[in-house]
């Protein structure tokens, strides 16, 4: 987009005056940010309108990404970058004595997600628009984002995230597009005058679903897609229907909070209500808009692709059937055909406890008509499959069994595509977790390895490196991430290697300043910055990291002159509020941190920093400053991981198990450029079969491990009487479910190899360069293009980066 500095300044000053009756010089940062946001929004409003007009006029097929979470973080800089206005605006503001960074900090993170799954949805929205693909998001506009985390005496405390308090400049409320969503009551079927069985509803409750749209801008291509988030309101005419105050509050509060559990399924009624809410609103609105352009319902699959992001929107299948059969008068068979062709599903987890199942009674209570439809889908599935395969297989794969509705079964049976998010994960789905379904529908299964938006994680978060890349390999990598490969031409160029190392140092200094400011801990940028940032979960094994830290600490205690390269261990992690074990790990890390950081005997060689409130913005600060990327989940447990890709892109060296996408990172950088350790997925499964793992034996035979574990219960680590005991017991009494002790020695060895490598500066720099050079492979641009071609069958309507350069 072409806007001159003069034009921008004029527009900006005018907006400040209009909005706040104030001059720029007299305005607060809040006011300046709000004005800037609204100017930027006005700049892209034409492109937004045109994108909508063009998709409608061409009647091209569009994708709708249904996700109960989106985690975009801040949007100001990303919008400026994608519009090609970052430099113009930064420079203009500077000329007015305003620091763009300061205004960026005013914006609240939009944190409508827990972690990987929500962030992936947002990287996809960026990439879909940047690839010129017609694709929209559909989700929930939570009034409160993911809780804010504070540490009080080392314990996690959760505070509400009031991200909307100052308003949200990017959203547009579309009251005219509101739809009703019905709940509860009773339903029975009655023959109508044409002899069709139609539902009759009694005592239903009605909610108004009001959409708030946010533009999703493509990179330099004038494409603006829509993220549509729904908010619940009680319609005026219904006010008196809600009997009790509690009931009213319940329903009004429906979209107020995001459930903060990421991989631990809890069957809360309100969560089910939320799921139906955004599914029903989204499907209704898609069908309404298609009908408006004259599309026949029988042809719907030629015009829309609906993607079910994990099972949370799996009700899409039943809601689509309800509308097609009850309201559009299609026969069941025809409606089913359309539905299956329209829907596709991604699985994000193999952890059994995260698989969604709802009691039949809850569905009957909340969505009685949908439950009838699910029963009919199930009945027909059983009838059809019983003719083809043995009855036990049918019993295992049916949707309703043991009084529960299995959402993954509904999603697989009701869609034409099921994919995992990394090669290993997709293989495990086919071979183990969803093997029964693979037997029934082998052609539906496929892999789509996750990806990341390099615009956010390199261009925006790591400007020093991005600028150096421009000077070194040209700017084509900004559009074509695989062009980062050009960096390989410099792998032996000591000047470039040193320049890259200098950018890393700059980023480390910036992070060190933040650490000092927020925690009071003084860390040296000359130390190795070793980073583990992700949700706190036993399978991700932050505990393994902690045990290794304790090992180094005891070595230094025994011999303060021990030759240990100075390291700063940096953690960022939120625990689900109900996940006590995870919270106890946080407490222990914080207590170990206090103990070690205060111990002068070790001369500052080890520092531990657990940064509060890990979120997208903090990730943008930490990742560019990382030397070492910790990806140490138990093999087979992490579906993909995406922080592994972000850290690699910014030149960190990975220490990893052969899990999720780590395997693909290893394959692409080669064994010499990554530190792999630990059990393989086969070895883990063999232990499950033979049941012959004994953590106690390892403990009894290894004095180093004894000393480390005893520290948790003998008072060595202060203030963790309860927590330390629980962790000790999880390892020894309950036999170490995630094989932490089994992988300990090989982790120690891998950490040693990392240290040795770091001491060899030229070699380290080369490994770092090789990681950045190969990270283009994991651009989400390529991931969404594969979804577009293989699953959604949609085509670009804009060229990639067709716009002029900034
Ligand atoms: C389900 C039911 C009830 C309440 C909550 C939930 C729920 C919510 C969020 C279940 C799971 C999640 C989030 C899962 C998630 O983030 N998974 C991660 O997805 C990433 C993107 O594919 C992968 O890279 C990670 O490996 C995977 O852990």
From TrEMBL:
<comment type="function">
    <text>Allosteric enzyme that catalyzes the rate-limiting step in glycogen catabolism, the phosphorolytic cleavage of glycogen to produce glucose-1-phosphate, and plays a central role in maintaining cellular and organismal glucose homeostasis.</text>
</comment>
<dbReference type="GO" id="GO:0005737">
    <property type="term" value="C:cytoplasm"/>
</dbReference>
<dbReference type="InterPro" id="IPR000811">
    <property type="entry name" value="Glyco_trans_35"/>
</dbReference>
<dbReference type="GO" id="GO:0008184">
    <property type="term" value="F:glycogen phosphorylase activity"/>
</dbReference>
<keyword id="KW-0021">Allosteric enzyme</keyword>
<keyword id="KW-0808">Transferase</keyword>
<keyword id="KW-0328">Glycosyltransferase</keyword>
<comment type="function">
    <text>Phosphorylase is an important allosteric enzyme in carbohydrate metabolism. Enzymes from different sources differ in their regulatory mechanisms and in their natural substrates. However, all known phosphorylases share catalytic and structural properties.</text>
</comment>
<feature type="modified residue" description="N6-(pyridoxal phosphate)lysine">
    <location>
        <position position="646"/>
    </location>
</feature>
<comment type="similarity">
    <text>Belongs to the glycogen phosphorylase family.</text>
</comment>
<dbReference type="GO" id="GO:0005980">
    <property type="term" value="P:glycogen catabolic process"/>
</dbReference>
<dbReference type="Pfam" id="PF00343">
    <property type="entry name" value="Phosphorylase"/>
</dbReference>
<protein>
    <recommendedName>
        <fullName>Alpha-1,4 glucan phosphorylase</fullName>
        <ecNumber>2.4.1.1</ecNumber>
    </recommendedName>
</protein>
<dbReference type="GO" id="GO:0030170">
    <property type="term" value="F:pyridoxal phosphate binding"/>
</dbReference>
<keyword id="KW-0119">Carbohydrate metabolism</keyword>
<keyword id="KW-0663">Pyridoxal phosphate</keyword>
<dbReference type="InterPro" id="IPR011833">
    <property type="entry name" value="Glycg_phsphrylas"/>
</dbReference>
């Amino acid at each position: 987009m072409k806007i001159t500095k003069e034009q921008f300044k004029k527009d900006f000053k005018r907006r400040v005056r209009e909005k706040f009756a104030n001059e720029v010089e007299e305005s607060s940062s809040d006011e300046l940010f709000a004005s800037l946001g609204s100017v930027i929004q006005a700049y892209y409003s034409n492109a937004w309108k045109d994108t909508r007009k063009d998709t409608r006029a061409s009647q091209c097929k569009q994708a709708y990404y249904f996700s109960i979470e989106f985690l975009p973080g801040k949007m100001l800089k990303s919008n400026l970058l994608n519009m090609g206005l970052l430099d113009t605006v930064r420079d203009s503001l500077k000329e007015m004595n305003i620091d763009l960074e300061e205004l960026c900090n005013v914006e609240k993170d939009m944190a409508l997600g827990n972690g990987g799954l929500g962030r992936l949805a947002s990287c996809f929205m960026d990439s879909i628009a940047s690839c010129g693909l017609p694709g929209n998001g559909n989700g929930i506009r939570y009034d409160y984002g993911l809780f804010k985390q504070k540490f009080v005496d080392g314990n996690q405390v959760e505070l509400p995230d009031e991200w909307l308090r100052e308003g949200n400049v990017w959203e547009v409320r579309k009251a005219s597009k509101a739809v009703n969503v019905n709940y509860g009551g009773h339903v029975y079927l009655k023959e109508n005058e044409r002899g069709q069985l139609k539902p009759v509803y009694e005592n239903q409750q009605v909610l108004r679903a009001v959409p708030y749209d946010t533009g999703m801008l493509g990179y330099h291509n004038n494409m603006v897609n829509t993220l549509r988030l729904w908010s619940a309101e009680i319609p005026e005419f219904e006010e008196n229907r809600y009997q009790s105050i509690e009931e009213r509050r319940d329903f009004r509060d429906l979209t107020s909070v995001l459930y903060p559990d990421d991989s631990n399924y809890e069957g809360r009624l309100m969560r089910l209500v939320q799921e139906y809410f955004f599914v029903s609103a989204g499907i209704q609105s898609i069908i309404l808009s298609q009908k408006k352009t004259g599309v026949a319902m029988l042809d719907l699959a030629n015009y829309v692709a609906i993607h079910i992001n994990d099972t949370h929107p799996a009700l899409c299948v039943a809601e689509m059937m309800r509308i097609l059969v009850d309201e559009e008068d299609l026969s069941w068979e025809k409606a089913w055909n359309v539905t299956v062709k329209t829907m596709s599903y991604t699985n994000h987890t193999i952890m059994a406890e995260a698989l969604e199942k709802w009691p039949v009674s809850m569905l009957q209570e909340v969505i009685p008509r949908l439950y009838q439809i699910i029963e009919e889908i199930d009945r027909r599935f059983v009838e059809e499959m019983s003719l083809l395969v043995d009855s036990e297989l049918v019993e295992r794969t049916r949707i309703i069994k043991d009084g529960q509705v299995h959402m993954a079964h509904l999603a697989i049976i009701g869609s034409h595509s099921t994919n995992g998010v990394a090669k290993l994960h997709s293989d495990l789905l086919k071979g183990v977790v969803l093997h029964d379904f693979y037997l029934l529908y082998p052609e539906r299964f496929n892999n789509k390895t996750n990806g990341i938006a390099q615009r956010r994680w390199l261009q925006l978060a790591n400007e020093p490196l991005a600028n150096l890349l421009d000077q070194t390999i040209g700017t084509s990598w900004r559009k074509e991430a695989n062009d980062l490969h050009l960096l390989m031409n410099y792998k032996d160029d000591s000047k470039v290697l040193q320049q890259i190392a200098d950018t890393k140092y700059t980023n480390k200094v910036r992070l060190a300043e933040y650490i000092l400011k927020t925690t009071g801990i003084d860390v040296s940028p000359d130390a190795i910055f070793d980073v583990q940032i992700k949700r706190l979960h036993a399978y991700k094994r932050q505990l393994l990291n902690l045990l290794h830290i304790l090992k180094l600490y005891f070595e230094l205690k025994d011999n303060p002159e021990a030759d240990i390269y100075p390291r700063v261990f940096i953690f960022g992690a939120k625990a689900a509020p109900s996940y006590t074990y995870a919270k106890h790990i946080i407490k222990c890390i914080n207590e170990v941190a206090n103990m070690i950081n205060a111990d002068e005997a070790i001369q500052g060689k080890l520092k531990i920093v657990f940064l509060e409130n890990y979120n997208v913005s903090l990730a943008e600060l930490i990742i560019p400053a990382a030397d070492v990327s910790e990806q140490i989940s138990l093999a087979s447990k992490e579906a993909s991981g995406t922080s592994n890709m972000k850290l690699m892109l910014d030149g960190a060296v990975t220490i990893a198990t052969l899990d999720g996408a780590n395997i693909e990172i290893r394959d692409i950088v080669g064994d010499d450029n990554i530190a792999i350790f630990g059990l393989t997925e086969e070895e883990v499964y063999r232990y499950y079969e033979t049941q012959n793992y004994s953590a106690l034996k390892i403990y009894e035979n290894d004095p180093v491990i004894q000393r480390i574990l005893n520290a948790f219960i003998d008072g060595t680590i202060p203030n963790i009487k309860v927590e330390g005991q629980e962790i000790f017991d999880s390892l020894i009494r309950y036999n170490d479910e995630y094989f932490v002790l089994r992988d300990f020695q090989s982790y120690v060895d891998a950490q040693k190899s990392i240290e040795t490598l770091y001491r060899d500066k030229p070699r380290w720099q080369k490994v770092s360069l090789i990681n950045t050079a190969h990270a283009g492979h994991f651009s989400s641009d390529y991931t969404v293009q594969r979804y577009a071609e293989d699953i959604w069958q949609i085509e670009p309507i804009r060229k990639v980066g067709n716009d002029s350069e900034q």
